[in-house]
Amino acid sequence: MPLEGMPLIRPSTTDHPLYETVVEACRSVYDPEIPVNIYDLGLVYTIEINSDGDVDLIMTLTAPGCPVAGEMPGWLADAVEPLQGVRTVNVELTWEPPWGMEMMSDEARLELGFM
Question: Between the CA of residue 19 and those of 23, 28, 50, 59, what are the distances in Å?
Fold first, then answer.
């Protein structure tokens, strides 16, 4: 049960110099069933980067039965790990809050014909 007033999705460290680079790396990973990258689909909930270059990513999938559920966190880690300045990458899979179409970016909705 989340604490009262606590956001369901932990905020990202958007002010970290590596943040935009990590976002771009996330955009290079695609769900094989959907022609949109996982970042614009809204599957990457949190990008946390500390001052040592340790990156913690919290992601979800469109559905628990997703055929690549076991592989996608690894794909995301593989995309972020080689980046200059990144020391370690940890990808955590969560089902809270459940993913919904409202989490997609406008670009993703447009690409999939929802706009």
Answer: 6, 15, 10, 16
